[in-house]
Amino acid sequence: MLKTTRYVRNGADYRLGEQANFIDIKQCFGLNHISVGKWVTKEESELAANLVFDSMADLSQILNVPTELIGLRKTLNLLFGRGGQKGVQAHYSPVTRELALAKNAGAGALAHEFWHAFDHYIVDKAFDVSPRFSFKKYQCASDLWLQDALLKPHKLNDNLSALFKVVLLSDDGEQPSQYVVDAIKLDKQQGCYYFSKPSELMARAFESSIEACSELHNNYLVSGTLKNDPMTLLMYPSASQKVHIYTAIINYFALLGKAFEKQN
């Protein structure tokens, strides 16, 4: 069964007290496809549908974008209770463009995984990925930005670049940010290359800035980034950096939302 931990949120009652289902989620948030695991009971499915619906609605409100943008122009697929990875509460697969939430442990990871999906989706919109350039398959925009890939000229891409800069570089733009330095230190401690990957740095910056700075709170959307233990403090940006990151997030997505509405 889904864990019965109480989920706390202060967002509006978008559903007007009605029970949501995954068809509602697909239509409202512009997703391409939704698949629910065969071992998910009706009760679990109903609870999850309400939580996911409210979380996606809250995310669209936080980012100031139309709800349909969350599905990334009907390219994003959602899996619930299937397609997961052992020991992982949630993950995004660029190969299949699938965001998978584990039945028993997906709570709090939706914002993080949405960023991964967006970071992958926006590559060919933001960067010149023509054949004359050599890029690895399934790279994300954050990877290409650090490689100084050619940004397409557009105000949106200027704002996206500003977001990457405030997360990944020092104030003068000449050195890695302290957040990146801490992530490299954490990787050395753990004996891996994970925390300092550009895509992971951006996903943690995105989720933690939302949890710290947004007036909307939803611990199914994001949770666990504000702990005060040494590991967590190394994993996420400082409180002051989160404020600047959040401002850059809103500046970018609000403009993206207007462009999306105009095109539609």
Would you write up a description of this structure?
- With 264 residues, the chain is α/β, with parallel strands linked by helices.
- It has ten helices and four strands.
- It has helices at residues 22-28, 42-63, 110-121, 123-126, 141-146, 155-168, 178-190, 198-213, 230-235, 239-263; strands spanning 33-36, 77-80, 90-93, 98-101.
- It has a four-stranded mixed beta sheet with strand order 1-2-4-3, with helices on one face.
- α3 packs across α8 (198-213) and α6 (155-168) runs antiparallel to α10.
- The protein is globular.
Concise structural overview:
This protein is of the alpha/beta class. About 45% of the residues lie in helices and about 5% in strands.
Question: Would you identify the regions where 5 or more consecutive residues have pLDDT less than 50?
Answer: none
Strand order of the largest sheet: 1-2-4-3
State mean pLDDT (0 to 100 scale).
93
The helix content, as a percent range, equals: 40-55%
Report the strand count: 4
Structural class: alpha/beta
What is the CA-CA span between the terminal residues?
A: 40 Å
H and E order: HEHEEEHHHHHHHH
User: What composes the largest sheet?
Assistant: 4 strands, mixed
Count of alpha/pi helices = 10
Rg estimate, integer Å: 18 Å
Q: Judging from the principal axes of the Cα atoms, what is the shape?
A: globular
Strand content: 5-15%
